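User: quick one, sequence for these tokens?
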């Protein structure tokens, strides 16, 4: 659902990978150490002053940094129960703030997601259409015996219902263990250790928007923060209703480091490095390094910038790719708060597939590519219909937005797509057809995104998108692809 994007600890660890997967042994060792440390801390009778508060801002603005760890949402130890509102993110974990026992809290949300897409094969001849409704129920439980420990569990029940016949898409009810982790915080001032299935995101979901099994260590001192982690997708089974082994698509073990510095009121700059080891197949070891920054140049002028280079090897070829994503949003001090956005994104392609160098940029495989502009709704900023990865592609973006009433926004966004080098593939595309490889002109797209959160606890989003194929699809280019979706989510806390 939603890419991510739109994630059980019940399966035993894959023993057949133990001998050749040191990170798994490391995770098990640190988990045991964490539990021992938790017992030591819980037995401590003398209170220790907490050095750094983990209470998030009460602002409706998303955090400018990666925000590597989930905040503590309960009443325990005098912590705030009003964490940051993260608009229209279906993957956002629910708060657990309702007391149901000693140091035990519950919360959650229920939502309804609907989506219909038509002519994703770019041909009206067959009239292909997919439509689904998906009710979702996601309770959350938090146990906090003291100010140093938190155990958080978030199962998610999804019941997809096919409104129109759907090809190659599962309509099976799923009960997934979305999150399940133990946090040890501030035993050493400013530090936090998390072990288990936890959420990985960055500010624009350019690197991560996924829940992964991991061990993660974070440190914060004033405006500086540091994160180190080892993670793997579906190390243990996610679906509680299905016993067969789940294999993630690419089987990477991820070694991630991120350092961030806040400056001014709403600005940050961060450096990251990600090494991915495809141990299962042993064919790919990409290394991604880069920089990201966002904030305000002036009071009404927002900016963002991501840039990265990927190196390493894949199937005997050397990897040498680069990418940049940059943009500005100007907000005007007028009625309805109009805004204007321009953006440009570029990921390199490969001009010579027959040499020993793969010059294509590749995203992590865990990205969500979603953000908000000046509105209240987060959406896919490379296009809701096409939704490509930034590989062998240039994306030119322009957008206008208004806020006619409080906590309501309308965003109209236009994208123009060109390939860097002609290719018969658009990596990550949601379309059911491929380009002919005769033209760089992929096409264009128009998206309308409406968000509303004027009712307490309720999040509402509507999306309309239409993709106009270019000459890269010259055999069927007069037929476009259409998407309509909505999200209704009610939070209990």
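Assistant:
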């Amino acid at each position: 659902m939603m890419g991510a994007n739109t994630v059980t600890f019940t399966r035993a660890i894959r023993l057949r990978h133990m001998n050749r997967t040191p990170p798994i042994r490391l995770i098990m060792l640190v988990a045991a150490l964490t539990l021992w440390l938790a017992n030591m801390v819980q037995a401590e009778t003398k209170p220790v002053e907490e050095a750094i508060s983990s209470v998030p801002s009460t602002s409706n603005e998303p955090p400018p940094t990666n925000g590597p760890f989930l905040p503590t949402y309960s009443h325990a130890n005098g912590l705030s129960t009003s964490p940051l509102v993260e608009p229209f993110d279906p993957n956002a974990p629910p708060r657990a703030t309702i007391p149901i026992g000693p140091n035990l809290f519950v919360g959650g949300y229920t939502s309804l997601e609907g989506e219909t897409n038509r002519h994703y094969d770019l041909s009206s001849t067959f009239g292909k259409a997919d439509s689904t409704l998906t009710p979702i129920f996601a309770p959350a439980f938090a146990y906090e015996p003291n100010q140093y420990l938190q155990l958080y569990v978030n199962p998610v029940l999804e019941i997809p219902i096919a409104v129109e016949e759907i090809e190659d898409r599962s309509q099976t009810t799923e009960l997934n263990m979305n999150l399940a982790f133990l946090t040890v915080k501030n035993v050493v001032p400013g530090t936090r250790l998390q072990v288990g299935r936890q959420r990985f995101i960055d500010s624009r979901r350019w690197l991560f928007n996924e829940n992964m099994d991991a061990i993660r260590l974070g440190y914060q001192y004033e405006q500086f923060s540091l994160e180190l982690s080892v993670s793997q997708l579906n190390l243990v089974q996610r679906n509680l209703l299905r016993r067969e082994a789940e294999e993630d698509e690419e089987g990477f073990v991820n070694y991630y480091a991120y350092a961030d510095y806040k400056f001014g009121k709403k600005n940050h700059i961060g450096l990251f490095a990600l090494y991915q080891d495809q141990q299962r197949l042993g064919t790919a070891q990409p290394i991604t390094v880069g920089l990201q920054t966002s904030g305000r140049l002036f009071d009404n002028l927002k900016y963002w910038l991501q840039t990265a280079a990927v190196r390493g090897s894949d199937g005997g070829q050397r990897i040498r790719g680069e990418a940049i994503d940059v943009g500005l949003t100007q907000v005007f001090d007028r009625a309805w708060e109009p805004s204007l956005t321009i953006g440009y994104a570029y990921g390199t392609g490969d001009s010579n597939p027959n040499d020993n160098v793969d010059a294509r940029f590749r995203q992590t495989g865990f990205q969500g590519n979603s953000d908000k502009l000046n509105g209240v709704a987060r959406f896919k900023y490379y296009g809701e219909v096409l939704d490509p990865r930034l590989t062998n592609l240039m994306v030119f973006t322009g957008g206008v937005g208004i806020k006619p009433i409080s906590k309501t926004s309308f965003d109209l966004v236009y994208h123009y797509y060109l390939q860097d080098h002609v290719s018969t593939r658009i990596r990550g595309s949601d379309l059911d057809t491929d380009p002919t490889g005769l033209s760089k002109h992929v096409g264009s797209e128009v998206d309308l995104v409406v968000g509303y959160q004027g009712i307490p606890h309720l999040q509402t989003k509507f999306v309309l998108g239409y993709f106009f194929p270019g000459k890269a699809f010259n055999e069927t280019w007069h037929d476009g692809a259409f998407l309509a979706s909505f999200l209704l989510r009610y939070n209990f806390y």
